[in-house]
# Entry
Amino acid sequence: MIVTTKELFKHAYGKYAIGAYNINNLEQTMGLFRGNLDSKAPFIIQISKGARSYTDKIMLEAIIRGADQLFPDAVFAVHLDHGDEETCYDCINSGFYSSVMIDASAEPFAKNIEITKRVVDAAHAKGIVVEAELGKLGGVEEHVSVSEADAKLTNPAEAEEFVKKTGCDSLACAIGTSHGAFKFSGSQGLHFDVIAEIQKRLPGFPLVMHGSSSVPQDEVARINAAGGDLKGAKGVDAGQFRKAAELGVTKINIDTDGRLVWCRVHREAFRDDPKNFDLRPPGKIFMKEYAAFIAQKNEYLGSAGQLDAVRRMLKA
Ligand code: G3H
Ligand code: 13P
Ligand code: ZN
# Structure
């Protein structure tokens, strides 16, 4: 069942965070649904601009609709990840997405407000909710490239003004993370002081943490042992998720870790069976491993075991 992120956040706020997982293909989708049902968790499917054009947005939509039919107990939101204004309108008008992210964080403050407000007005007119972003993460996003040196944490006073002026439904804040597999090159970590100050100014308002992959070191070691070259890869300690959730972080974005599972499974499968050229044996392993990965993440997020309570809330 497709719901808005707003409904999911209402249940989660202050207690746990909802996992927001990016998908690009059929195998990821199968693993995602199975993993969330196995762990009884509500979830958010994230679709980036790159994912929409990898095969085609229509193909991705059809895969998700198929999964919704196949797994009728699943409760999830369909969300555009890091959208520009044009892509937001495309998703809002598609009738399929329940949530969009407008990422105008590379623009000056006033321009970010102006663009975000336009998207909020268009989305709300159709019952769709909007995530916006303020501050700059390190790493590379879809259409925004920011060097680690320029990474800029969200200013709490600006966050308060931004939310009041735009009417957005949730806010992605830069609190020390970056996208990809190489986070925290220096002595960085999560800035809980910044999250706490934003929560104080915006009590009850859902915050979003991007760049939250943990980049497990055993996964990196297995990839490297099977021919990969990911030396120095490092991520966020998943043990910090619950603390962030208590401070109002209700959505935690994870993509890179899923790619690492895919990479490890396929590297090891072809290394261990060099005569194989059938895509299905590694595909089957991947779907199973990806489901287990999702279920484990949901334990860290605290979303595991919440599905029945969310269903009851939706019925009430
Ligand atoms: O934040 C970006 C996500 O990891 C999506 O990545 O734009 O390569 O699909 P992508
Ligand atoms: P990671 O690269 O840490 O998985 O972050 C993903 C993300 O923020 C998607 O919007
Ligand atoms: Zn992101």
